[in-house]
Amino acid sequence: MNRWKMPSICSIAKQSTIFGLCATLIAPTIPAAAWAQPVGLPSMGATSAAELSPMLERSLGQAIMSQGRRDPTYVDDPELSQYLTTMGRKLAAFAPGAVPEVEMFGVRDPEINAFAMPGGFIGVNTGLIVSSGSESELAAVLAHEIGHVVQRHIARGMTQQSQNGMLMLASLAGALLAALAGGGGNLAMGVAAFGQAAAINRQLGFSRDAEREADRAGFQMLTKAGYDAEGMSQMFSRLMNASRLNEGAGGGSWASTHPLSIERMSDVQNRVRSLPPSRHVDSDDFWYVRAKMRVVQGRDAVSLRSAGQQLQDEAQALSGVRQSAAYYGLALQAFQRNNLTEADRLWNLASANGRSSAQLAKLSVDIALARKDYPRALELAQAATKRWPEQRALGIAYAQALQAIGRHAEAQDYLRAKIKQWGGDEPSLYQMLAQSEERNGKPVQARRDLARYYVMTGAFAAAESQLQQARGLSTDFYEQSQIDVQIKEVKDKLAEERQLLERFKSG
Question: Are 235 and 137 in contact (CB under 8 A)?
Answer without folding.
Answer: yes
